[in-house]
Amino acid sequence: MKKSSSILVNKNTITSIAIGGFDGMHGAHQKLFEQLDENGAILSIESGYANLTPKRYRQEYSKYPIYYYVLDNIKHLEGNAFIKLLNEEYPNLQKIVVGFDFCFGKGRKYCVKQLKELFHGEVVVLDEVKIDDIAVHSRIIRNYLKDGDIKTANILLTKEYKIYGKQIKGQGLGSTNFVPTINLYVEEFLLPNEGVYVTKTILNDTEYDSVTFLGHRVTTDGSYAIETHIFDKNIVNKDYSIQIKFFDKLRDNAKFDSFEELKEQIFRDIDEAKEYFK
Predict the structure, then answer these.
(1) Is the pTM of the predicted complex or chain greater than 0.70?
(2) In CATH, what number is assigned to the domain containing residue 258?
(3) Per-residue pLDDT at 212 exceeds 90
(4) Is 208 exposed, middle or buried (0-12, 13-18, 19+ CB in 10 A)?
């Protein structure tokens, strides 16, 4: 999916807002957004720790405009001052939607009870969302990604986990000794743990089946790399906008005794990934 630009809306028209951190724009977040009316908006409180779906990538996952507030700029406010700020920013605000564990203001001492007392409008509070008996929280999704459990992370995200990167020059071994790969430099995004993954690689707006390696190249130069191989194509280096969508993990990173053993394993990885997409 193409990354959307921010939606510009006159704040005077906004009648409902969802407030939260919204890193990941995951399944529980989407439940919050379902409670917004047609003139809704999303207020994302930025703590600086978002790495599942960093700030500028979130608009892709919602039809509602997203407004960003830096936590350090508002965390000193008492509860009534926070509500006053919302009413000034959105003068026709009638509804606020939050999660069950929402807290705000100085020392996070104001929570759902105080929100209902202070805001003279409708307050909708969603219970904890579970999928397959797993509570859906960004911190839990991060743990699954760090463990390489892409399938569970995707279930909680209700979409494939995706990163954006820039193409960089690799070792040059792929096209000559192994298979051609695109090497990526990735900032901002949390990377799954080291290993080989079934993926789709998006170059500009075109999506290809692929297999992707993340980790230290322990058999060759030992450096950390993100390398993706697109099946049956030799993509010439260009200034692509690159996205990687993760579907499943094939294996952990491993050291091989020879280039030949590594090459044989790479071909097995490719065959297994192709079978996945069949």
Answers:
(1) yes
(2) 2.40.30.30
(3) yes
(4) middle
